[in-house]
Amino acid sequence: MFGLAFGRAPRKRWLLLCVGVLLVATMTLAGAASAQSVERPGCSAVNYTGAGTADDPYELSDISELACIDNTTTEATLNDSYVLGADINATDTGSWYEGRGFDPLGRCVSPNASNCTPALFTGTLDGNGHSITGLSIDRPEENQTGLFSVIGLNGTVQELRLDAVDITGGEFNSVGGLVGSNGGTVSRTAVTGEVSGENFNVGGLVGSNVGTVRRS
Predict the structure, then answer these.
(1) Which of 132, 137, 147 lies closest to 101 in space, CA to CA?
(2) pTM score, two decimals?
């Protein structure tokens, strides 16, 4: 009896050890999967509070709500009014679009902000004293790079702080922490972090400016 019991014990211990290893491996893989950031903002799930007007602006409280402005699945456009309702954590943007990061708001097909297509930002964004932290953009093949690509003549961004940005823009021009090319009004804003571009018109706040920048 003792011999039989003694012979079985190592097998039981080995079985428990295998189960334990599999359990640890499963937990490790599950943990790794849950730790991975999303690949892009989930715009289809975004539901804005507000009407997008000057009197009732859309409220932005997370990075997806900001990133999904002018997305085809949302009602928010580049011409609407916005206000931050809270500080926004943007650290997940580093893994978006296969590491290319946040897709700048507003697009321009011309290097001159005064000659842009209608896809530039002509609305209003009031940061309301809040901050956006950890915004990441790595798009060395693109110009007019920043949180905003181009702010148009009637566009306004105010009372906003960007902290710990990591932004790399195009090899030709217009890279800024807040906006690549400004043709509107930027007021009472600040940026900390790293902003880089290959040649000219690279700035911590604004890359190139044909508009108004004050108290920033």
Answers:
(1) 137
(2) 0.79
What pLDDT shows up at residue 141?
87
- Other beta carbons within 10 Å of 4: 8
The pLDDT, as a whole number, for residue 29 is: 40
**Which tokens sit at 39?**
């690949």
Do 1 and 94 lie in a common domain? no
Give the structural domain span for 99: 43-214
Residues 66 and 169 in one domain: yes
Residues 115, 184 within the same domain: yes
The first and second tokens of residue 6, run together, are 């003694």
Q: Residue 32: phi, psi to the nearest 5?
A: -65, -40
Give the whole-angstrom CA distance, residue 179 versus residue 151.
Answer: 7
119 in the same domain as 201: yes
d(CA 56, CA 69): 16
Query: In sequence order, which residues have a C-beta less than 8 Å from that of residue 141 and are 6 or more positions away?
Result: 170, 171
Amino acid 181: pLDDT: 92
Number of domains in the chain: 2
124 touches 54 (CB < 8 A): yes
The rounded distance, in Å, linking the Cα atoms of 179 and 153 is 13
Structure confidence at residue 31 (pLDDT): 43
Mean pLDDT by 10 residues, the chain (216 residues): 40 36 40 51 92 98 96 93 99 95 80 60 97 97 92 96 95 88 97 91 94 94
